[in-house]
Every structure is written in structure tokens, then in C-alpha cells.
């Protein structure tokens, strides 16, 4: 079973609509990282969260880490075609560790 | 921002041959580099952690004699797939962690190398 569960696995939304992707763990998330990947390419770093309750925003993307540090959400407002891609959450599950564990990814499609 | 390059971006080889993939941090020193593989429509699976000047740490189930990792400098790590077979065909991605005293574990990823073994 996955140590990080992402939901949904795929998402199709109309351009302009809002959407949310979730990343959940049964273990404490000591560091939570959101990345975006286009098929066959590397990962683009989006945001990093460390503290319970933390929220960060960049342009139309907002990421939150819950107080218990076991769930994170990525919210996109007024989606655009450029937001299409695969979103991956990665996390450090052991305090001080360097190793990242990844969720299975969420494939986002934006329909014009 | 921090840039990580990989070379080659894609490679096709015959079964039984060895393939070397390079991962370079272009504008920063990386104390640690990581090698991942990704199968189609699946997530990244960590293969090994590579520290400059020391032996790589392999994840469970990853054959260290098959996937040779050399981290010769603070800006270069190489992954050699020895005696490649079709089941080794995959997308290999490296990442590099900036040399820092911070507790942040931010990793910067290369663009990936697609290996196809015939």
C-alpha cells in the first residue's frame, strides 16, 4: 500500500473552475512537497510545507498542511490550460531524513 | 533557481549492454543526489541515495550490482545500468539536494532520462 495516498487519481475540469487535490498519510508529514510533472519530463517544484496549519500560495495555487500534519491539499483557483499536468506530493516521513516518498500522482486535464 | 541536468535525455540500447546516465547540478553544490525510476502512469520510486565521496545507499529490492552509482563530485552523479534488459526500460529521474545547513529537504529534479532496452 502507498504511504502517501493522493486523490483523485485523475481529474478533468472545465477551464476557469476551481479544483482541489489531496495528499494523505497515516504517518506524520515532517516535510510536504508539491511538484508538477508533464508527461515524460522532470518535476517542477511548486511548494513546500513544514508546519502544522501552514498555508502557502503562489499565483493561483494554494497548498495547505493540516494541523495534525497528516494531510495536505493543493487548490487551484480559476484553472487554466497551463495548469494541466501530473501533480505529485512528496513527503519526508521520518524526521531529519532526506528520503522523499511520493504519492501516485493526480493527472489533471483542463478542458477549454 | 537551482538547475539539474540529465544526459542523455533518452537512450535506446540492445539487451545486455550497459548504459550510463549523468546527473549534474549546474549552479549549486549538491551534497546528496537521489535516483528514481518511474514506470508509465506510476509514481516515482526511490532507487538509491548518493552522497559525494561515499557509497550509495540502495533501497530495498534495488540491485546495487546492476545499478551502479558514482557520486564523484558535488555536482555530478552517474547511474550505470549494467547488462540492461527490457524490464529495465523506464524513466529515470535524478534529484539533487542543495548543500545547506537548513533542515529543509528541498530537492531539485532533473528532466529525466527515458531508457528503452530492446
Question: In a few lines, what is going on in this structure?
Answer:
The complex is a heterodimer of chains A (112) and B (118). Chain A has strands at residues 4-7, 10-14, 19-25, 31-37, 43-49, 55-58, 61-65, 71-76, 85-92, 101-102, 106-111.
| Helix-strand topology string of chain B | EEEEEEEEEEE
Return the structural class of chain B: mainly beta
CA(first)-CA(last) distance of chain B: 37 Å
Average pLDDT rating of chain A: 93
Helix content of chain A: under 10%
> Low-confidence parts of chain A, pLDDT < 50 over ≥5 residues?
none
The largest pleated sheet of chain B is described as:
7 strands, mixed
Hey, which two chains have the biggest interface? A-B, 26 and 26 residues
| Cα distance spanning the termini of chain A | 35 Å
Structural class determined from secondary elements of chain A: mainly beta
| Individual helix count of chain B | 0
Largest sheet of chain A: 6 strands, mixed
**Proportion of helical residues of chain B:** under 10%
Features:
heterodimer; A: mainly beta; six-stranded mixed β-sheet; five-stranded antiparallel β-sheet; globular; B: 118 residues; mainly beta; seven-stranded mixed β-sheet; 11 strands; 0% helix
Amino acid at each position: 500500500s502507498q504511504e502517501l495516498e493522493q486523490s483523485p487519481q485523475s481529474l478533468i475540469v472545465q477551464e476557469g473552475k476551481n479544483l482541489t487535490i489531496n495528499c494523505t498519510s497515516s504517518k506524520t508529514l515532517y516535510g510536504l512537497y508539491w511538484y508538477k510533472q508533464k508527461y515524460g519530463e522532470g518535476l517542477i517544484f511548486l511548494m513546500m510545507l513544514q508546519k502544522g496549519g501552514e498555508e502557502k500560495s503562489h499565483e493561483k495555487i494554494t497548498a495547505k498542511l493540516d494541523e495534525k500534519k497528516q494531510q495536505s491539499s493543493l487548490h487551484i483557483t480559476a484553472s487554466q490550460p497551463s495548469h494541466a499536468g501530473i501533480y505529485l506530493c512528496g513527503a519526508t516521513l521520518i524526521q531529519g531524513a532526506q528520503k522523499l516518498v511520493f504519492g501516485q500522482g493526480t493527472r489533471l486535464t483542463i478542458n477549454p | 533557481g537551482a538547475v539539474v541536468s540529465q544526459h542523455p535525455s533518452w537512450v535506446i540500447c540492445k539487451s545486455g549492454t550497459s548504459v550510463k546516465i549523468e546527473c549534474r547540478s549546474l549552479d549549486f553544490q549538491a551534497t546528496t543526489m537521489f535516483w528514481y525510476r518511474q514506470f508509465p502512469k506510476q509514481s516515482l520510486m526511490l532507487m538509491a541515495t548518493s552522497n559525494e565521496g561515499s557509497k550509495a545507499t540502495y533501497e530495498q529490492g534495488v540491485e546495487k550490482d546492476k545499478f551502479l552509482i558514482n557520486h564523484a563530485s558535488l555536482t555530478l552523479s552517474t547511474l550505470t545500468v549494467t547488462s540492461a534488459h527490457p524490464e529495465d526500460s523506464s524513466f529515470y529521474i535524478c534529484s539533487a539536494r542543495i548543500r545547506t545547513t537548513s533542515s529543509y529537504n528541498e530537492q531539485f529534479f532533473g528532466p529525466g532520462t527515458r531508457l528503452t532496452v530492446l
